[in-house]
Amino acid sequence: MARTGARSLRELAALGGTLALLALGYVLQLLGILLPGAVPAVAGAVLGVLTDVLLFRWQRGAARRLGRAQMTAPVRQLLRDGLFLGGLARLDALRPDGKGAWLLVAVLGCWALHFLCQAVAGAVRTRRRLPFVIRNIDATGLGLTPAPPALFARQGTLRLTGVGALVTVGAAVSAGTGDALWAALVASCCCAGLLAGTAHLGSWLLSRKRVADEERALDWLDGWLEEYRPTLALYFSGGTSSAYQANMWLSTLAALDGRPLIVLRERFMVRKLGATDIPVLCLPKVAHLMHLEHSALRVLLHPANSGKTSQALRIPTLKHAFINHGESDKLSSCNPYAKAYDQVWVAGEAARERYRAADIGVEDKDVVEVGRPQLAPIRPAEPPRGKDMLTVLYAPTWEGWTTDPGNTSVILAGENIVRALLADPKMRLLYKPHPMTGSVDPRAREADMRIRQLVTEANARRTGPRPGPETVAGLERAAVELAELTVSAARPGADEVERMLAQSRPEPGHADRVAEATAAWEEAYWASLPAWEHQVVTGPMPGIYSCFNQSDLLVSDVSSVVSDYLVSEKPYAVANTSGMSEEEYRTAYPTVRAATVLTPGAEGVPELLETVRHPERDLLAEARRALKVHLLGPAEPPSLARFNAACLDLAAEAEARNARQAAQAREVEPVDAEAEVEAEHELNGSQALAEALGDDDRL
Known about the structure:
- By secondary structure, this protein is of the alpha/beta class.
- 53% of the residues lie in helices and 8% in strands.
- The protein has 27 helices and 14 strands.
- The protein is globular and about 95 Å long.
């Protein structure tokens, strides 16, 4: 908590310093009005502009706080311009002649054109916001065009700061010379630039640059769905750090029979999604999501629960399967929400038993064992004999949404585990924290930072040979080749529409080439690192499976990482921070049955490392092989084949259900519309007569 408090104090200090600079600038400008002399007025204006540049580049948080207090960039600049004009008047630079009037008109013109540009930019952005976002789809017919210049379309604060800086320079020269001509010339040039930019921006409102409106875009969507006729889709909704939950299923989805589709709900997620050739369709509004009802789509696969999942479950023509983004013994793997799906797909028998024991309403007949098809890249164990250096992967999970101390080992045991591992001179540590570590509990974030510091300090005490320049150059070449395949073709200033235009239908086999380039990069990445150096591995690359393949031992928590690691049959350890005894812990969590259980104090780490170095001392090898089958299912038929069969079976169920409902609808006796209208007229006539005679029951 101390580090959190220190960070808060630093943020408050930064905000206080920014406010002090702003206040000092305004005070100096005010002194320039009250006292004769150009120095205070010029110094105050320049200081104010520099402070705004500081806010724009490095103090975005402070700028947001000032905005909430109504001290936005336009307000700050308007106050600064008013004070500077007052200073020029005090210096007699604004004489009632042509130059002074010219300057006033030019400054007012800059402000008027700024607000006009903002209005036009808002209209352009509104017109360019389609009701959906697409990727890997030919967008012909939507009228997509390149984005307008970002300086005028989206960067109002930067534009205003630039104009303010130029006008301030001109006004400073006028303050020094006593002649308003210089400030008037600069302000006039800014007016001309703003006018030209606004006019150019307005051309995007003309028909030749305007994208399809909502009605035409939705008609196009219906036509594309009719042409592509998707059969199954991955449905995903989540936050910025949860994209990995969908990315892990992309290769599996691409290998299935049929015509796959990826359905997203958040616009930003289109850019977070990994490389794939599968068509991507983002439908932010639930009303537009309903367009899937009349398509050929029959199966939705859900890798995660979210608030927007319930909206997809309302589509009556679809069948829904919950495939999860990882299985573990944690309670979150048996969420009661799962009973809302038609089926729950799990890896093996252990998950079926878990749902049965949880008694949350998921019937056993709706649980389908499909294995974990995305685990294919994980290589089997190799004997560590002869290795000079063991590689240990510490990959703890995050703290989760509950207060259970057993969720993550980072808080209570992480530092002890890392210290015990680092004490072994013939061990290399790979520390890969969960991407959401510290997102709920600040203690986890602070412990994570301390662990990283321990790794840095341990590396400072080590020396050894480093890879040569050829190896480093190989990594650079691999990175360039991967970037050429994965970096968007859209330019940096592109907006959403231009990115859709640039990311239309990909070349055949593009995803395969990305996979090959990624594998080549990972191989070059590990080769470029010293074999003795500890590493903190963050970010999406290298992936967790690549770390699995580098390691001889895993230390983790009760999480899907443990289940996935079992594919390799390598030794693993689990930290018990639950407060249970070891016996209770093994009983409560089946994934721990073949693990070495570590206490919060990390006792037993040296003995654990020795069992890895000497496989004959490893008494859990047979237990790992048995648990692998129990958790992940049999090796035959392959997991991908079982997953594919489950998709086809569920699609057939959806087709049969839809056919039955259509037949039932046809059996309903059609209504004679003409007779119905005639009966209604008779009823209305009788009612009018009853009212006239006073016989209406309502009287």
